[in-house]
């Protein structure tokens, strides 16, 4: 690695310390892996069940983030006002909110006696401690990642292309589909990947709002938590799998190609 031009040499020392802080723990975990039992552990019925549930719910929550996150990002980037800033702050709240607190908030919103849940219960719909609760918890914590990615790209790109499209007679919807979305496609892809990764790793809000029922709400992080309590060695193989998934996600985000210019 060549030294970067204009970067003071002393900065490399704290940068190296930060790199070590992040990299050493996964390496230490890998060294302790019970390789002889690795395959049998990750292919056990309970592990496959937890992984399948994590993947399925993470995909669904990522789609939900796409459907509701992109419109919010566009509104935030192309509108202004004090009220809208307050709304934006609330949407980004899960980024800094402890996940367990988020889970409690979801429980009091969608639980049987919750603000919305009590009305759903009358209709025979129970969300808390179900697979649907897992999806909602994942969407709650993952949504801000997509919103920030797309909104940031929209603010950087500006609205000049959209204004040109409008002068050429393109309506708002056509401009959105043919100009705005292609313009932020790389950021949208990054946001989707990050949202999926955050959903896959969600723990606190899930265990609080959805519980830990095997086959119903026990995702891979929850199973790792239970295994760590009962037998720490048993928790390592599945932990390694999630590390690999997270690594693939990070590499995919940082090696993405630059987006193309929008075409009317």
TrEMBL record:
Name of the protein in question: Molybdenum transport system permease
Functional note: Part of the ABC transporter complex CysAWTP (TC 3.A.1.6.1) involved in sulfate/thiosulfate import. Probably responsible for the translocation of the substrate across the membrane.
CDD domains: TM_PBP2
Family note: Belongs to the binding-protein-dependent transport system permease family. CysTW subfamily.
Membrane-protein topology: Multi-pass membrane protein
Localisation: Cell membrane; Membrane
PANTHER family according to UniProt: SULFATE TRANSPORT SYSTEM PERMEASE PROTEIN (PTHR30406), SULFATE TRANSPORT SYSTEM PERMEASE PROTEIN CYST (PTHR30406:SF8)
Organism placement in taxonomy: Bacteria, Bacillati, Actinomycetota, Actinomycetes, Mycobacteriales
The species this protein was found in: Williamsia serinedens
TM segment ranges: 12-33, 53-77, 89-111, 131-154, 175-197, 235-255
